[in-house]
Every structure is written in C-alpha cells, then in structure tokens.
Amino acid sequence: MTDTMELPVAEDLAGALLDLAVPHEDIAELLRLRGRISADTGLRRTLESAAVDLVRDMGRIGGGPELPRSEDLESTGGALARYFPVLVYVAALPAVRAYHRERAVPDGVSRRTLADLGRHMALHRRRRGTGGLPVPGWLALHFRGELYQLGRLQFQRCRLREPIGAAVRADGLPYGPGDYALGLHIPDFLGPLTPGACDRSLARAGEFFSRCYPEEPYGVAECHSWLLDPQLTRYLPEHSNIRGFQDRFRIRSDKTRVADGEPVEFVFGDPRLPLESLPRRTTLERAIVDHLRAGGHWYGGHGWFRL
User: In this structure, what DSSP letter does residue 8 have?
Assistant: First the structure.
C-alpha cells in the first residue's frame, strides 16, 4: 500500500464527490476546503497521514484506525472539522478501488458501496442542518473492504462474538465464537424492507462472498438492531415488512440496554426530538410514540440465522 496519498485537483475532486453521491449543496464547500488544506502544510500532512492509516491492513476484519476527531480540528473552524473525514475518504479512494479490483468486486457493487458516503451526509444534514457525517468512523468499514452494499441490505464481514456465537453453537450448528459471520445492516432512504428485496440481497450476498472472499466461509448472518426488539410484534400487523424481517432470525432480546433514541433517530430523523412533537402518521410511528408515551422502553435486539 502506498505511503503517500493526497487529494485530487479541484476538477477531479468535484467528479469524485459526485461519484460518491455527495449532495450538491456540499460540493462547493468541500472544494473551498480543499484549497485551504493544500495551502496549509500541517493540515495537508494530517489528512495524508489519516488516509494512509485508513487503508493500512486493507481488508482485515476489525481493523482500521480512528479518524482525526472533530475536537482535534476545532481550532481550524467548524466547517473543516465537520468535513475533514469526507476528504480523508476521498484521498483514500485510489487505494480502495485498487483493492476492489484485486478482489474482483463488480464495479456496480463498488460504486454503490462507496456512495453510502453521500447518503450519510444527507442523514447528517437531515438531523443537524449542516454538512458532515453523523458517525465519521462508520464509513471506514466501506472504505476498508469490510462492508458491501448488495441490493437492499448491507453486509459486513465479521466474526461471531458472545452471546450470539454461543447461541449459534448451542443450537447445534458447526459455528461458534470467532467463526466468520455476515453482519446485516438496513440503510435508510432505500425503500421498503420487503421480503422479496431481502431475499434478493441474501442471494446476491451468497454469490458475492463465495466469489470475492472464497477463503472465508460464511454460514451465519447476524443483526443487532432495534428492529429486532420483539415488542414491535405487539403493534405491527402480522404481515408487516418488519415482522417478516424479524421472522428470519433467532432473536435474543437485550433488556440491559435501553435504546429509546434509536427508533426515534431512524424513523423521525433526530433522537433529540421531544416526544410530544413526534407525529403518528404511520403504523410504525404510532407504535414507537405510543409505547414511549405509555412509559415503555425500546431495546436492542440481537438475532442470527443460518445462511
């Protein structure tokens, strides 16, 4: 892996940002910040070092460094602190695409996986009203070859951990803690979570990982999400998409960690919204709001199924 990485020239940077689905309202600011970084030796070295660190040990499960924290860049001004991780990812693009070619990742899968950067920027603007990334380090999974967008779902290369690993083994399957697993993630803005869309994603995942990572046997899928909270079945119709998604899994409820903010964040856009302001337009919105207003809590659910 190269020891030097830098941002492309302004014209090429604009094209790279469009390829990553970066919202148009963010591009001019990113181009301005590129000029600022290029003119500042310290900032340029910080960015190039972060990009090199990001792609070191490319493809290793559970690897990856911490990106420069926004508080470390506060003295540079708010916009630069918020956008800096985006530019780190852009500087790392050549190495990421080279790794995808090496692994025979189809161009369409590569493009849609990395374009999740733009989706997360749209989420940040929806929640905060400004440009940036809500959880900057999350995109490291995409840019290090650990996570791929395959249809409606995203699939993360990972290993079984407790307590799911022990539950899988106790169920008589030849897998347990430390064995390979695919972590399922459900991105926003991509339409309903229908059974058919999930079936197609899972079929694509089987083909993709057997071809691109043949040395890693994936026999189990796992998911950790508020969508797997069994309490949802009390509110949703029997044939709802969420209940259909839950039915795929062997679910373990985790009532040690209250997660009230997660459904509010993912359904209404901001976990800080006051409960009394939340609308009740859909069945899911009414379920989330009515449960919380009645004094209940939402919890994270953990589930798995055999692939």
Answer: P
User: What is the chain's alpha carbon radius of gyration, rounded to the nearest angstrom?
Assistant: 20
Query: What pLDDT digit, counting tens, does each position of 77-124 carry?
Result: 689 999 999 999 999 999 999 999 999 999 999 999 999 999 999 999
Sequential DSSP letters for 13-68: HHHHHHHTT--HHHHHHHHHHHHHHHT-HHHHHHHHHHHHHHHTTTT-TT--PPPP
In one letter, which amino acid is 263? Answer: P
- CB neighbours of 66 closer than 8 A, spacing ≥ 6? 137
Distance separating alpha carbons of residues 76 and 53, to the nearest angstrom:
22
CB atoms within 10 A of CB 108: 9
Question: Which helix (H) or strand (E) covers residue 100, if one does?
Answer: helix 78-102
CA atoms of 222 and 158, how far apart (whole Å): 9
Q: Give the tens place of pLDDT for each residue, 229-267.
A: 999 999 999 999 999 999 999 998 878 889 899 999 889
> Rounded distance, CA 117 to CA 102, Å?
22
Answer for the pair 209, 158: CB distance below 8 angstroms, yes or no. no
Residue 212 Cα to chain centre, angstroms: 20
Nearest C-alpha neighbor of 99 from the set 153, 142, 159? 142
